[in-house]
Design a protein that fits this description.
The complex is a heterodimer of chains A (171) and B (427).
Chain A (H helix, E strand, L loop, with lengths): L2 H9 L3 H10 L1 H12 L2 H18 L9 H23 L1 H17 L5 H7 L2 H12 L4 H8 L3 H19 L4
Chain B lengths: L1 H15 L7 H10 L13 H7 L9 H6 L12 H6 L3 E8 L5 E9 L4 E8 L8 E7 L3 E11 L5 E8 L8 E10 L2 E10 L10 E11 L2 E10 L4 E9 L3 H7 L5 E9 L2 E3 L1 E9 L2 E8 L9 E19 L6 E5 L2 E11 L2 E9 L3 E9 L2 E17 L5 E9 L6 E19 L4
Antiparallel strand pairs in B: 1-2, 2-3, 3-6, 4-5, 4-7, 5-6, 7-8, 9-10, 10-11, 11-15, 12-13, 12-16, 14-15, 16-23, 17-18, 18-19, 19-22, 20-21, 20-23, 21-22
Classes of the chains: A mainly alpha (171), B mainly beta (427).
Chain lengths: 171, 427
């Protein structure tokens, strides 16, 4: 079925249509959730949270064409709130692991991009991930994150600059 | 900086091979199971929500106006000096107050051939600034809001919006900025009338056909038009392809390729703001949006970087001797460097050029088809060879082992370089 038809169906309250809308693009949604959460289980949780919010609010969506960016914005917000909850839960665990991680880092001569990415501020991190990992262009990122395009650009360029600094002489 | 981008790219390729858990659909259905149908409202709803989500491409361009119309500078970013010097745009400064006290003020507008941009604010002491919906500009025809961005003050009593609308037709003079609020379940309409002052409209617009074709592999790229207004430059065109569009369209899948091109004015690259591709049974159409062009232009050129596409190969490779092996898929070389098994899993280490990605990969182990479990980046990852080429090494993991191995590859995704320049004549 045509996507617009599906959006209309979902707006009319069809759960099947809504699930199909997501499943038709499951890779994009799953990758987006995975980029934020980094874990399969959390990515699935975030998507389950997302679909409930979509279902409750889709009748408000006037422009069917906007379904993609609308739903992705909601998914990003679900991921973030899930991570906020997780943060409180895994705090202790993280503390214990630190020694081990440091040890590993000093042994590894190879640069671990994830470690460096984590040092960036959250805004820069997500802008870089969306651009480079999910291939979104600046305009799409600004739509999904609801920040002006100029901010997206400056986050990316500052983030890249910082990454370069962190990597020091090696890169 | 390039090397960081390589590292980022490596991560991306890893992600590209992420398997989607099979339980996803069940999880989604389960999450919805307990949901009751949402309540529905009558009439005009939901515009504000969409407006928040849809951003225009033009925020840089309207920086000047952000400064002119006080308080909008945080909504828009960057600066376009040329535009600033032009000092155009029309101040309106008229308000409408609804019966419940919500005040809408249209502070000013900017018009060019690509769009109308409205600067307006919504004020309410009780903070109901989200209640204004269904924004529209009405003349002889109706012009809908296509996107917008707003900023709320700290006390949440005022929001300043920059909204873009379809451009009014050339004959339009008297326009109405219309909007509505839902006041106790009845819709209350409001409007602000204004006269469009064409002399204050934004400078001139170059609209020109390009009519250039570019053959690239199985595809023909047609660059149709360039529309350069003071706020944005839009290049439109279409792609003829031999790929199976009909089937893609039936499956409602996204276009599985991407076109990339840059715009140069006076030999300097113009910042790219967005690239869109849409498909229909007739083919693909694309639109590239760039920042506004400089005022003085000596030369204008499109540089086509290339196309990334997936093509079916449907190949089964016999891996009998368990040794390394080289083969070609549509002229791209794939090297199987190592085959080994460990803990009931089989691993294939493969090397390809860095833009090549195998899709729909599975391993037939003793006549049984085993899907790709995941791809592990090799420690070397992207390797720069002495001849300047970059190869990408990774290991494919399949959750079974056996003696008779066959690698099955459905599609190959690769980048096809074009590196061609199309000069756009300036008169």
């Amino acid at each position: 079925m045509d996507k617009i038809q599906l959006v209309k169906g979902a707006k009319a309250g069809s759960k099947e249509a809504l699930v199909q809308l997501i499943m038709d693009n499951k890779k994009e949604y799953y990758k987006l959730a995975y980029v934020y959460t980094g874990r399969q289980e959390d990515a699935l949780d975030a998507m389950a949270d997302m679909i409930v919010i979509l279902y409750e609010n889709i009748y408000k969506l006037k422009d069917e064409q906007a379904f993609d960016s609308w739903s992705k914005t909601i998914l990003v917000n679900c991921c973030k709130s899930l991570l906020r909850k997780r943060k409180k839960l895994i705090f202790l665990e993280k503390l214990e692991e630190k020694g081990y991680q440091e040890n590993l880092a000093s042994k590894e001569s190879k640069i671990d991009l994830d470690n460096y990415l984590q040092k960036l501020n959250p805004g820069q991190q997500e802008a870089i991930k969306l651009k480079y990992f999910l291939d979104m262009d600046n305009a799409t990122i600004s739509q999904v994150l609801k920040v002006p395009i100029g901010t997206v650009k400056s986050r990316i360029s500052l983030g890249l600059k910082k990454l370069k600094e962190y990597m020091g002489g090696e890169y | 900086m390039k090397d960081i981008e390589l590292l980022l790219k490596e991560k991306k390729e890893e992600l590209e091979k992420l398997e989607i858990p099979i339980e996803l659909e069940t999880r989604l259905n389960k999450a919805l199971n307990s949901q009751k149908p949402p309540r529905k409202k009558q009439g005009l709803i939901g515009v504000a929500l969409i407006m928040l989500l849809l951003f225009s491409y033009n925020f840089d361009a309207i920086a000047y106006y952000g400064k002119q119309f006080m308080g909008y500078d945080e909504v828009i970013h960057g600066a376009l000096k040329n535009l600033n010097e032009m000092g155009q745009g029309q101040v309106i400064n008229k308000s409408h107050i609804f019966s419940n006290g919500i005040e809408v003020t249209l502070e000013g507008i900017m018009v060019d051939d690509n769009q109308l941009i409205a600067f307006y604010s919504i004020k309410d002491e009780r903070g109901n600034i989200d209640d204004v919906r269904s924004l529209n500009i009405k003349g002889i025809f109706n012009y809908h809001m296509s996107s917008g961005s707003g900023i709320i003050n700290e006390s949440e009593t005022e929001i300043k919006w920059v909204g873009t609308f379809e451009p009014p037709k050339f004959f339009e003079r008297n326009l109405k900025f219309q909007f509505a609020i839902n006041n106790n379940n009845t819709w209350e309409q409001g409007e602000i009338e204004f006269k469009l002052d064409r002399s204050k409209a934004m400078g001139t617009t170059i609209k020109q056909s390009i009519k250039e074709k570019l053959e690239l592999g199985d595809n023909t790229i047609n660059f149709a038009t360039i529309t350069a207004s003071p706020t944005v430059t839009v290049i439109e065109g279409s792609i003829d392809t031999k790929l199976d569009l009909y089937r893609n369209s039936l499956k409602n899948t996204h276009p599985d390729f991407k076109i990339d091109f840059d715009l140069y004015a006076n030999n300097e690259q113009i910042e790219k703001e967005g690239m869109g591709l849409s498909s229909s049974l007739r083919g693909y159409t694309f639109e590239g949006r760039f920042e506004a062009l400089p005022q003085e232009i000596d030369s204008l050129a499109i540089k086509v970087v290339g196309i990334t596409s997936s093509k079916p190969v449907d190949k089964v490779i016999n891996l009998d001797n368990q040794a390394s092996l080289k083969f070609s898929l549509l002229d791209r070389e794939v090297l199987i460097k190592k085959i080994y098994s460990e803990n009931d899993a089989t691993y294939l280490t493969i090397v390809t050029e860095d833009d090549v990605l195998l899709e729909q990969v599975s391993l037939i182990i003793d006549e049984k088809e085993v899907p790709l479990e995941r791809t592990i980046s090799s420690p070397e990852g992207l390797i720069k060879n002495t001849d300047g080429s970059i190869t990408f090494e990774r290991t494919l993991m399949f959750m079974d082992k056996g003696d008779n191995l066959k690698l099955k590859i459905g599609k190959i995704r690769s980048f096809e370089e074009a590196n061609k320049t199309i000069e756009i004549p300036l008169d």
